[in-house]
Amino acid sequence: MDFTNARNGSRILDIATGTGKQAFAFAKKGYDVIGIDLSEDMLKVANKKNKYKNVRFEVADATNIPFEDKYFDVSCVFFALHDMPLTIREKVLQEMVRVTKPKGIIVIVDYALPKNKIGRFLIYHFVKSYESKYYPEFIKSDIRALIRKLGIKIEKECLVMRGAGIILKGNKNG
């Protein structure tokens, strides 16, 4: 959340919010947050846990986000893209770009692989054992190239979880 360096009063979209953990972290800092997810059951949990007036949750499809163009200062997705086929993943990212203001911030957090061969092998096979069938294709794809193709300039990236995860922060061009 601090990775975004969002300005006070920023409007934040949390895609695939699940039970709202990230949305609550943003809300706690005073941002206006909307969390969207396809799962009504997950959002029921999020709403039960919600103690903030500046966060709300909506059932919505991230491939067709129900907000106007250039509405959010920050759009983010945490550990969800690896669960999508490439065509859906690309559509979700296109929608993130559409609803984010020019020069707005886009944050993507998902799986990665460590740099060393042994770590790569171990992490890949471990995560593959419990993740969706889309994980192998996701991990072998070039997420950075896809992000750049969609008009997002990567400003900062950080490997986390001993290289098994990555945080990408980008700016929407123009």
Written account of the structure:
This protein is α/β, with parallel strands linked by helices and 174 residues long. The protein has a single domain (2-172), classed as Rossmann fold (3-Layer(aba) Sandwich), CATH 3.40.50. It is 33% helix and 30% strand. The protein contains 6 helices and 7 strands; from the N terminus they run E-H-E-H-E-E-H-E-H-H-H-E-E. It has helices at residues 21-28, 40-49, 86-99, 117-128, 135-140, 143-149, and strands at 11-15, 32-37, 55-59, 72-78, 100-111, 152-160, 165-172. It is globular and about 45 Å long. The two termini are 23 Å apart. The mean pLDDT is 89.
Strand order of the largest sheet: 3-2-1-4-5-7-6
The main sheet comes to: 7 strands, mixed
Radius of gyration: 16 Å
- The stretches of 5 or more residues where confidence is low (pLDDT under 50) are none
SSE pattern: EHEHEEHEHHHEE
Shape: globular
CATH fold title? Rossmann fold
Count of individual beta strands: 7
Q: What share of residues are in beta strands? A: 25-35%
CATH class: Alpha Beta
Q: Mean pLDDT score, rounded?
A: 89
CATH homologous superfamily identity: Vaccinia Virus protein VP39
What count of structural domains?
Answer: 1
Structural class: alpha/beta
Tally of helical runs? 6
* Helix coverage percent: 25-40%
Distance, first to last CA: 23 Å
Q: What's the CATH architecture?
A: 3-Layer(aba) Sandwich
Topology (elements, then pairings):
Layout: E1 11-15, H1 21-28, E2 32-37, H2 40-49, E3 55-59, E4 72-78, H3 86-99, E5 100-111, H4 117-128, H5 135-140, H6 143-149, E6 152-160, E7 165-172
Parallel strand pairs: 1-2, 1-4, 2-3, 4-5
Antiparallel strand pairs: 5-7, 6-7
